[in-house]
Amino acid sequence: MKKNKTQKLLLIIALVTVLLSGILYLSRNFGSLKLDKDIGNFKKVTFLLHATSDKDNYFFSVLISLYPKEKKCALFFINPLSSFEGDDETLEQLGSSAPSRLEAELNRILGFNPNFIITINETNFKKIINFVGGLPFYFEPKTFTPSNSFNRPESGYYNLDGKDAYDLFTSLNSNKALDYVARLEKQESAILSFYNKVFLYKDEIKKPWFAFLYSIIQTNMEESEWLSLIDFLLAEEIYFGVSELPGELIGIEKTDKSMLKIKKDTVKIAYNKFEADILSEFFSDTERSRIEVLNGTSINGLAKKAKSLLAENRIKVLSVENAWSSSIKESIVLDRSGNSKVSFKISNTLNNMPRFFIIRKELGLDSTVVLGEDFDKAK
Question: Within a domain: residue 136?
Fold first, then answer.
């Protein structure tokens, strides 16, 4: 009798252990998280956004880590040239099967699945951009992308409609790896530009718009969760940081293309460091930031005046130079790194100067201030 009781007890313990293990596994691997009105109390919420064409093309993904308490968001972009251990093909070559392959690899490398998955295809991307009245963008001579179909300016403000935005953010000049990097930076700029526009015009946007947006994306979120998330994102400005999945660049045999060979340990270290940096109090410290001021007029001393104003507000300027033109009318702030709190503080300091996201990490800068004739007239 005693032996039977012991066996039953062991069996119960084993069943409970299996049950708890299953719950923990589901919680860890399938992101069981319910978004509600208390999202601001959450420590971290993760999303994986995939961008695809209507056919078989894969453009990029971004692992989004939102830290509601800190009002911060880390964007970890995945280059389509990425190729994981055991794969001979890049994500781009995998096409429509790339998202599921990436999800499996991120789980293996980082030890978790995102809480929510979002996929946006070509048609719906165009609808979204048109529905918000276009996407504001700023061209400068070195980032100008000519088009036979669209009348983009070589420099200055330009509003992209859906077709124009899709063309700009998906086209490549060549198969070279550097062109893929340049395109990825445009895609990073697009996401930050979209959030910035929606936040600026949030009072004019009605809730049915967000319900419409939910209806045209693919996601495992419930509509109530989606609306709770939108309410949170628009209540106070969220500050972003941007990084990319690292890899070793190697050539693909018998082609003119390259691939980024992804190594588990490198990615894990890079992601953990990025997360720690974002949450650090020094991440958006403008005394440590890298800022340049460009004089876009023929008025002498204008850039030095701006540098002094920024210095008074503990914003360090690395260099003062002339812009590509001396006839710029309106002053702007260009966010170069995706560290949006830095560009926000600069804009706020300089009388809410218009801000655009034109990420160019090769410059080694956080922001560029371009002064126009209006700056000389401002009090």
Answer: no
pLDDT digits (tens, 9 = 90+) for 79-125: 999 999 989 999 999 999 999 999 999 999 999 999 999 999 999 99
As a dihedral over the C-alpha atoms of residue 165, residue 171, residue 172, residue 173, rounded to 10 degrees, the angle is: -80
Residue 319 lies in domain: 291-377
Backbone angles phi, psi at 123, to 5 degrees: -60, -45
- Structural tokens at position 205: 């946007």
SS3 percent helix, strand, coil of the chain, rounded to 5, is: 45, 20, 35
Query: The tokens of 185 are what?
Result: 């930076």
Classify residue 167: in a domain, yes or no: no
Does the predicted model carry a pTM greater than 0.85?
yes
Yes or no: say if 292 and 319 are a contact pair by the CB < 8 Å rule.
yes
**Are 20 and 51 found together in one domain?**
no
List the structure tokens of 118: 């979002």
Does 15 have pLDDT greater than 60? no
Sign (positive or negative) of CA dihedral 127, 40, 205, 187:
negative
Longest dimension (CA), the chain: 99
Are residues 181 and 319 located together in one domain of the fold? no
Residue 100 lies in a domain: yes
